[in-house]
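Annex B, item 7. Sequence and structure tokens for protein A, then protein B.
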Amino acid sequence: MKKNLFPFLKWAGGKTQLLNQLEAKMPIGYKRYFEPFIGGGALLLDIQPKKAVINDINEQLLNVYIQLKQDTEAVLREVNRLDSHLCDEKRYLELRAKYNEKIQRREIDPECAALMIWVNKHCFNGLYRVNSKGLFNVPYNRNVNGRSMNEENLRNIGYYLRENDIEIRHGDFEKACRDASSGDFVYFDSPYIPVSETAKFTNYTKEGFTIEDHKRLAKLYRQLALRGVWVMMSNHNVPLVYELYNGFRIIEVDVKRAINRDATKRFGKEVIITNY
């Protein structure tokens, strides 16, 4: 029986509010589901395909999915331990430093997964940002109380990942799609093209995502379409999108953006692009 699953992290560009529109524009049938920029996984967790390939360049993010699949209870124990004390700024900075130490040592384990969940709940605006060294540097949000997780949701996510054919890959989006073939469905929710020339590209990984990456992504989109793969993408409604994806179906949608310092800029338009 399909359970109600939802993202365990607040993630910039999360697609919870667009789920109905995205699902209405998906192909009726497909073989495998690919999501090369998994992020918070809102669409994956809602449609719950039985065969899927999920990928991201952010190793710490993927570690949460991996640990939930391997041993959900170990992650729950670690998050409960972190939640057993009130969080003031001193504790937040101490645990943020510990999380960064684990990143530097590449200690990919249940504790690292729990720390990522915990800092996401206690950092400013739920923002995930790293510096040039790949270290998490978002300040404290002054949330002293509050649970960092929904245990039932995490258990259900772990169960879904274990009981279905869900392959978790780490790396570049091109590599993630290397074996996508005719009849498969790929959903690209990449870092968005900036809405202005002065806006910065995302830095949720130390590598960032450049204009050249967007051009590579557009080239891959066309290659997948030629292979007979169903492809859908979401992005900002900006001129460069129309240039890069000329010839494909581009549909405008209204959105409310949860992560923006200026509340007056939390509304805008995005697009959904399909090759069918």
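Protein B:
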Amino acid sequence: MKAVIFAGGVGTRLWPLSRKKKPKQFEKVIGDKSTLQLAVKKLQPEFTPEDIYISTGVQYVDMVKKQLPQIPTENIIAEPMKRDVGPAVALAIGYIGKQTPDEPIMILWSDHLVSEVNLFKKIIVQSSHFVEKKKDSIVFIGQTARFASDNLGWIEFGETVDMSEDVTFKSFKGFRYRPDAKTAETFYTSGHHCWNLGYFISTPRFILSLFEKHTPELYKTLQKILSFSSNHEFQKNLETHYNEMPEISFDNAILEKLDPSCSYVVVEDIGWSDVGAWEALKEALEQKREDNITKGKAMLQDSEDNLVYNYQDDKMVVGVGLSDTLIVNTDDILLVARKSDVKKIKKLVESFQGTENEYLT
């Protein structure tokens, strides 16, 4: 089985830690490892380094090599430019599928945490066996919802269709991306919805057939790129033709058009968290909402429900009487905001484009 970890995003919701020059997936957000390194670690030893691929931007290849020296260079798939997630997924799956078209492949992301690693691995193994039996199928891994999130995607699932080694496969009913708060509450209480993690297991041949069917223009360009017989030729094709790829999300390209009869869902509490935004990071690390989460030299008094990350060793960050507050201190920026206003950070960073503050993005 192969696995592709996508590590090409910039991550403006984790600004000012995450920047264009060094995005969040390469930063030590938790402990002494980056989330990219943690993503690889949770796959081992079931996956060897030769079975793990990293999809990233060409500007981040050196960072990937530095943080993951065990991953073969030929397993680093570098986009020469950003063309949205649809082309990125097509490129990675097409590249791997040229060598092993019918071997199960898993897609996952570099800025997520999974605390129940053994259960996660068990699901992966059994889902791989499931896909080997049903080659024209796709299995999504969903997280049992912990609350009514209106900031995540949701999967609707149906009845049990199969079970193996205590892993239950449900029928797939559909997706809903970031519903409003009222709808999210309905999903949370329905008993038939889970969080969509963006994790799935299928075969390259099947996924590529979906691209051919639903996005023929993208598929045609992909075939130009994949007509190589050496790594040098592949890189040349990539630089020549990748800019011809239509900019389209994977959801719009494939997922919204899926035939439910070939799609399945495994729903479990794998302790998943998206740490792509500060409020999500706090939710992942807290035991209870009123907890204070700190990193580096920080001191809080008479305070609750705050997150303080200090990346300067020669400065102490002190807070008194704080609540619902985010403080992030880096070498060149001190960010202070209400934790409930974190969604506004992305718009702030976007407003820097074309101004004297663009260097801060």
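Comment on protein B: Residues 285-342 form one domain.
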